[in-house]
Amino acid sequence: MTKRIYTGCFIALLLLVAASCKKPDFEAEQQAQATGTISDYLNNNFDLSLFAAAVRKAGLMDSLDQAAATFTVMAPTNSALNKDSVFNPSDFDHWPEDSLRYFVRTHILSSKLFYSDVPLSSDNRYSNLNGVQLYLSRSNAANGTVPFTVNGVNVIKESSLSTTTTARFGATQLNGVVYPLPNTIKVYPGTVQAFLQSRPYFSHLITGLKKFGYWEQMGSDGPFTVFAPSDSSFERRGMTLDSIGRMDINHYDPVVFGGYFLKPNHVFVTDMAQLPPVSGVLSLPFQTPSANYKLIMCQSAMGSGVGIVTAASASTSSLVIVSPYFSNPYGTQGTPFLGEPYWVLSLTTLNGAYINYTCSNGIVHLMADIVVMPEKVTK
Fold it and tell me: What are phi and psi of 128, to 5 degrees?
C-alpha cells in the first residue's frame, strides 16, 4: 500500500516536472490573453495611427471590430507611411476613394495567420482582401537578418522583456493578428509592362527595351524581375532618349538592355538572405537573355553588395564587371537599389529602404543608377 502511494506520488511529480519543462506555446498564450479586436489595437497604438486613419476612411474599421471574424493585418507604421509622403490623416483626403480602399485591402488577409503557420520557405502565397496574392517568406537561417518578410518587406519583430533569443512576430487579438511593417506593401494590379508605361520617368528604359526587342514580352505571363532606373539615371550617364533611339543594335551585345530583367524569375532582394547559401558561394548568378552574360545577386550577409552586377562569368573569382561601379572595391560593384547608398550594399544594412512593386506577372525594383554601361558591352 505504502509502495503504491509512493509510486503514485513519484509519477505525479514526474508529470509536474514534465509540464513545467514543456516549451510554452507563445501564440496560444497570446490568444488566451487577447481582450480586444484588431480595430481596438489599431485605434490605441500611436505608431499605427496613420494606418488606422486609412482604415477608417476606407470604411473597414467596423469589419476589423467584429470579434467573431478572422483577419491578418500587415500594418505599416507611421514612419513607413511617412516614406510615402503621408504625415497626417488629412493627407488621405487627397487619395481617390478606390485607390485608398485598394491600398488598405492590400494589407489585410481574410484569415488568422500566425507566424508559425507560415512554412519555412520563400514566397508562400496568401490572398489579400483584393484577391491578390501576397508573398510571405520565413527563414531560420543562421544569419537571422530577415527571418520574416511579406513581398520583400521585413516584418518588425515584437518587443519582449524575455531573455529568449527566439524571434516573436505578431500581436494576437480576439479576431486575428497584426504584424507591423517598416514599409508599405506596393502592389500594382497590372503587368510590369503596364507599370513601367504608367510612370513617365521610365521613358528611357522603355525606349531601350523597345530598341532591343524586349518590350512586347513584358506584357506576357513571365514571371519577370525588372530592375528599373529612372530617366535621370540614364541622363546622368549621358544616355538621352535620342542617343538610345540611335543605338546600333549590331554594335552592342543585347545585354545592354537585356540586363535589366530576369525571366522566368520572381526575386525579392530579401530572398537572397533567406535562401540557404551553397557552401563557398557568396552570390547567385541568373541568366540574362544574352548567353554571354549573367546577372549576379549576392546572398552573403557580410561584405558583398546586394546591388546588381552583370558579368561575363558566373564564377565570383573571375567576374567581368560591366556596371557603372566596375572599378569599386569588391562588394560595392553592383548598382544600388533606390534609397541604398552604394558604399554599404550589404544585407545587414538593407532594412526595407529599397522599393519594389509587385505586379501581376512579376516584380519591379527601383534602382538608383543604370545597370549596364554600354561601352562595356560592345561587340
Answer: -90, -175
Fold classified for 192-376: FAS1 domain (2.30.180)
Do the domains at 27-181 and 192-376 have one common CATH topology? yes
Angle between helices 49-57 and 97-106 (to 10 degrees): 130
> How is 82-149 classified by DSSP, letter by letter?
HTTT--SGGGGGGS-HHHHHHHHHHTEESS---GGGS-SSS-EEEEBTTSPEEEEEE---TT-S-SEE
Contact 217, 226 (CB under 8 A): no
Residues 208-261: tens digit of each pLDDT: 999 999 999 999 998 999 999 999 999 999 999 999 999 999 999 999 999 999
Q: Which residues of the chain have pLDDT under 50?
A: 1-24, 26, 32, 161-165, 300-306, 344-349, 351-352
What distance in Å separates the CA atoms of residue 187 and residue 257, rounded to the nearest whole number? 25
* CATH architecture label of 27-181: Roll (2.30)
The Cα–Cα gap between 62 and 85 comes to: 26
| Contact of 147 with 139, CB cutoff 8 Å | yes
> For the whole model, what pTM was predicted?
0.84
List of residues 6+ apart from 168 with CB closer than 8 A: 26, 115, 157, 158, 160
Q: Are 62 and 40 in contact (CB under 8 A)?
A: no
- Closest Cα partner for 183 from 56, 86, 306, 53? 86
Domain-wise residue ranges, the chain: 27-181, 192-376
